[in-house]
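Most newcomers find our protein records easier to grasp once they have seen one. A learned vocabulary of local backbone shapes supplies the integers on the structure line. Here is such a record, shown just as it appears in the course material:
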Amino acid sequence: MRKPKPIGPLSSLIPDQKLQLRHWYDSMSYEQIAARIALPPPDGFALDVSVWQLRRYFQRISLDDPAAPPETPSISEIIDQAALCQPGENVFTPATVHLLEKRSFELALAQEAPRKISAVFGLVLKSRNTKVRERLTEVQKQKLALRKEIEQQKQQSSAATRSSLPAPATPIPIPVCTPNP
């Protein structure tokens, strides 16, 4: 996988600055953060960044954030999980599918390579196909159960019809006439 493009001066932040930026993100708007970053140290980082760069930065770290709760899978974990599953097995929760859709949309907006977009969105399509196959299997099972029920009803009705018919009459012998010589 190719290394992501740097996001202006935000790519050169040290870990303490990244942590400070994360705290600001929780309590300030993008415009306020950009103004704060432009301040000289110790109040800011003395960097000139745009709101657009901040949005890209926070979108990128929100997908593979090591500080995220452990129940939130990263994109790389989702892709690994998809690679390890058996064909036809659905491993995606609705939240995971939403995250993959969001990531492929972000890749498209960032004008990333089409292979990246198709790899991520391919997982979404795989999930949809699996769900459709599961529903189709369920419908086929229901159709089979209905066919068996109809066949049993036909057999019961034909047996009831046979038993309600009068027994065939015994044939009466008809005398055969022979000509006299």
Summary: The chain has two domains: 10-68, 69-157.
